[in-house]
From TrEMBL, chain A:
Region of interest called Disordered, as start-end residue ranges on this chain: 36-66, 211-241
Protein name in the entry: ditrans,polycis-polyprenyl diphosphate synthase [(2E,6E)-farnesyldiphosphate specific]
Similarity section: Belongs to the UPP synthase family.
Keyword terms, alphabetized: Endoplasmic reticulum, Magnesium, Membrane, Transferase, Transmembrane, Transmembrane helix
Xref: Gene3D superfamilies: Decaprenyl diphosphate synthase-like
Phylogenetic lineage: Eukaryota, Fungi, Dikarya, Ascomycota, Pezizomycotina
Gene Ontology CC terms, in alphabetical order: dehydrodolichyl diphosphate synthase complex; endoplasmic reticulum membrane
Species this chain originates from: Delitschia confertaspora ATCC 74209
Reactions it catalyzes: n isopentenyl diphosphate + (2E,6E)-farnesyl diphosphate = a di-trans,poly-cis-polyprenyl diphosphate + n diphosphate
Record flagged with keyword Cytoplasm: no
Signal peptide bounds: none
TrEMBL record, chain B:
Listed InterPro entries: UPP_synth-like (IPR001441), UPP_synth-like_CS (IPR018520), UPP_synth-like_sf (IPR036424)
Region annotation (Disordered) ranges: 189-274
Chain intervals with Low complexity compositional bias: 229-240
Origin species: Delitschia confertaspora ATCC 74209
PROSITE patterns reported in the protein's UniProt record: UPP_SYNTHASE (PS01066)
Biased composition (Polar residues): 246-269
Enzyme Commission identifier(s): 2.5.1.-
SUPFAM superfamilies xrefs: Undecaprenyl diphosphate synthase
Short name of any one Pfam family annotated for the protein: Prenyltransf
Keywords linked to the UniProt accession: Transferase
Family: Belongs to the UPP synthase family.
A Gene Ontology molecular function term of the record: ditrans,polycis-polyprenyl diphosphate synthase [(2E,6E)-farnesyl diphosphate specific] activity
Protein name as catalogued: Alkyl transferase
Length: 350, 361
């Protein structure tokens, strides 16, 4: 009760609608609420002039004559002080997180070796079947050398490799402007070569890279630079794992829903659809086919949680993970996200 | 005697002594007033998570936990409205929550009913805050007696303009989006011209016929542009869409009457589906006329949206996950969130300014 400024008598009164053993009438309740209400005319007078504040009297003697002006200055002063304190606090927190993140990335480092990553995820009780990552396209090189298209492709390659090592079969990569969608073949090549550098050419997992609405280029389930020489071996050893990568952009979010609505409206106009048949399930099926299903885990590499146009429909129960004050793609965020995911339970509203 | 007092008991006595409670009240007012000096989010949403866990931790009944949660809500609303937030949206009850035990669902419903009834008893007080209550969600899933209390509270506060309290009560975001899509589709296939007696409108029929004649000769699809611009504006509502459709359809039927050899396809009667935009859908959401969602807070450390405000929070909303449970949530937890939001906003503004300067150079 100390922090709320509510006396125990009042607390029970609010709580049980009783005071001194009697039920409260609406009139009494209004009396009780008086001190918590805003002033009749905002900022025109002090709340309770019958209870003089010692602090106020000390700090300013003319507060009675010009209460609102004094109050205003007091507020501005407090605002400045609060922001000054928090500004220092935020900087310290960022520095602290930077150190922590660095230490964690020293402890967990993959050394581009699948076995290390597999060791990191072995303890986990469950793995997400569909991971989604939200990446940013940096125009300038002010952060960690991940600028431009090259940096973005690099990040994607690394993340795909980590997922392949961890045994996650489906990865969707969201980048707001969809730059990667314009160069799917090149991206596919880069990812393939990264996978090769992790796994070696014989154990390399197969990769399928696609984007919604681009049916023209959807590579087959085999890599385009086919490792045909090793294909006779493939039936002797356990089948190499396969990873699906889906590229998303802001077009696949609201715009796709708008497109769906257009189609539905057109169908309804032609009387081939009764608008009452539009159900959550119908939209879900359509959007799942057109874009993707719900990811189990969304990993943000940004310092704060901001979705930047991520497809809204798909995010229903997705676990959203971010590391406060983190900047840029790195392995420790990825592995922490997986650890966090394996701990949490789904309740589905129950 | 004083030594025998248990420490915490003494502290409680101290904290509940009149000067201290008064001082804390003043401090709260001071902080709220101070926050008001910076930018304030216009629309804040809360997921009130953790009532049951709080009850479990403190070994009290689940229903009691929800009661405490309601008090926390009252405290937070006080903070929000006093600091100048225009719209507060709270996730009170999910459609999925009907899966919970009947006892708990009934208790929650009773609580909602009781609180709304109490709310209706204090008309004058609500006017002081100037807050209008709105209920977002599936009305037909609520029992009639609760619905009655809802309607009473909603109609009573409907005139208040200063602030809005959106209570999401049987709500899921997917359901909301589905409803929006359905309503859009319905509004785009409504008019077929002959169903409705023409009402008095500021359009003259002869004028329209003339225009359409001119159009079909010049083959400029002007009406499509018109409905496009209407639907594109964020303020466009179902009504205006329907009106667009009616006008165009009326025109087309008239034209078909006048020169029937034209052979227009029947789809010409309807507004063009291509004019549907994201804004059309937004204006069909439950939160249509609210400002964009600036801040979404979820308590109890769960980092999921759980089918809440998906459409609204998908872009520029700052989403904050807090570890405290909802009944414990108060100004002291909310203050850092607000300050950080203000801080980020200020940085964004500075960046924007910097960029503009760069462009100017």
């Amino acid at each position: 009760m100390a922090t709320t400024g509510i006396r125990p008598v009042e607390a029970t009164a609010f709580h049980r609608n009783m005071m001194n053993g009697k039920h409260l009438t609406p009139r009494e309740r209004e009396e009780l609420l008086k001190p918590f209400l805003p002033d009749e005319l905002s900022d025109s007078s002090l709340d309770s002039p019958n209870k003089p504040s010692t602090r106020r009297q000390q700090s300013s003697s003319d507060s009675k004559s010009k209460p609102s002006l004094f109050k205003h200055w007091l507020f501005v002063l407090t605002y400045t002080v609060i922001h000054a304190i928090f500004s220092v606090y935020f900087r310290f927190r960022r520095a602290y997180h930077l150190v922590v993140n660095k230490v964690i990335s020293l402890i967990y480092y993959h050394h581009r070796t699948p076995e290390f990553i597999q060791r990191d995820v072995r303890k986990l009780q469950r793995l997400p079947a569909h991971v989604s990552v939200l990446l940013d396209f940096h125009e300038s090189d002010e952060d960690q050398g991940s600028a431009g298209l090259e940096g973005l492709v690099n990040d994607v390659c690394e993340i795909v490799a980590w997922c392949a090592c961890a045994g996650i079969p489906f990865l969707s990569v969201y980048e707001k402007r969809g730059i990667l969608k314009n160069c799917i073949p090149q991206t596919h090549d880069s990812i393939s070569s990264t996978l090769e550098s992790y796994f070696g050419s014989t154990r390399k997992p197969t990769l399928a890279l696609r984007a919604p609405h681009i049916p023209s280029y959807s590579p087959p389930i085999t890599p385009p630079r086919p490792s045909t020489p090793s294909s006779p071996h493939s039936d002797t050893k356990p089948a190499p794992n396969h990873i699906n990568v889906l590229l998303l952009s802001s077009n696949d979010g609201r715009d796709t829903m708008v497109d769906l609505t257009k189609t539905l409206a057109e169908m309804a106009q032609k009387d081939s659809l009764n608008p009452q048949d539009i159900s959550t399930d119908l939209i879900d099926i359509e959007l799942t086919e057109a874009v993707s299903g719900e990811p189990d885990l969304l990993i943000l590499f940004s310092p704060t949680v901001e979705l930047k146009g991520y497809p809204p429909w798909q995010l229903r129960l997705t676990e959203i993970f971010h590391v406060p004050d983190n900047k840029g793609v790195n392995y420790q965020v990825f592995i922490r996200a997986l650890h966090n995911y394996s701990k949490c339970e789904m309740r589905l509203g129950r | 005697m004083a030594e025998s007092f248990h420490n915490s008991r003494f502290r409680r006595w101290f904290a509940s002594s009149p000067p201290v409670t008064w001082g804390i009240r003043q401090l709260r007012q001071l902080l709220i007033g101070a926050l008001k000096q910076g930018p304030i989010p216009q629309h804040v949403a809360f997921v009130m998570d953790g009532n049951r866990r709080f009850a479990k931790n403190h070994k009290i009944e689940t229903v009691e936990g929800h009661n405490l949660g309601f008090e926390a809500l009252a405290r937070i609303l006080e903070v929000c409205y006093k600091s100048g937030v225009k719209v507060v949206t709270i996730y009170a009850f999910s459609i999925e929550n009907f899966k919970r035990s009947k006892y708990e669902v009934d208790a929650l419903m009773d609580m909602a009913k009781l609180k709304l009834q109490q709310l209706s008893e204090h008309g004058a007080l609500l006017d002081r805050y100037g807050a209008a209550v709105r209920i977002l969600g599936q009305r037909d899933m609520v029992k009639p007696d609760v619905l009655e209390a809802i309607d009473k509270a909603v109609t009573m506060t409907a005139g208040n303009k200063k602030a809005i309290l959106n209570v999401c009560f049987p709500y899921t975001s997917r359901d909301e989006m589905t409803t929006a899509v359905r309503n859009t589709v319905v509004s785009y296939c409504k008019p077929t011209g002959n169903q409705r007696p023409t009402l008095k409108r500021p359009f003259s029929e002869t004028h329209i016929t003339r225009h359409i004649r001119a159009q079909s000769q010049g083959s400029i699809p002007e009406y499509a542009e018109m409905s496009d611009s209407r639907a594109g504006s964020p303020s466009s509502s179902k009504g205006s869409n329907a009106m667009d459709g009616e006008n165009s359809s009326m025109g087309s039927t008239l034209m078909n009457q006048s020169d029937s050899d034209d052979g227009q396809p029947s789809s010409f009667n309807y507004p063009d589906p291509e004019s549907i935009t994201a804004d059309t859908l937004t204006s069909n959401m439950f939160t249509a006329d609210n400002p964009p969602l600036d801040l979404l807070v979820r308590t109890s450390g769960v980092e999921r949206l759980s089918d809440f405000m998906l459409w609204q929070c998908h872009e520029h909303t700052s989403i904050v996950f807090l570890d405290c449970l909802w009944p414990e949530f108060d100004l002291w937890n909310f203050l850092p969130v607000l300050v950080e939001w203000q801080w980020q906003r200020k940085k964004l503004n500075e960046q924007d300014k910097g960029r503009r300067h760069l462009k100017a150079d």
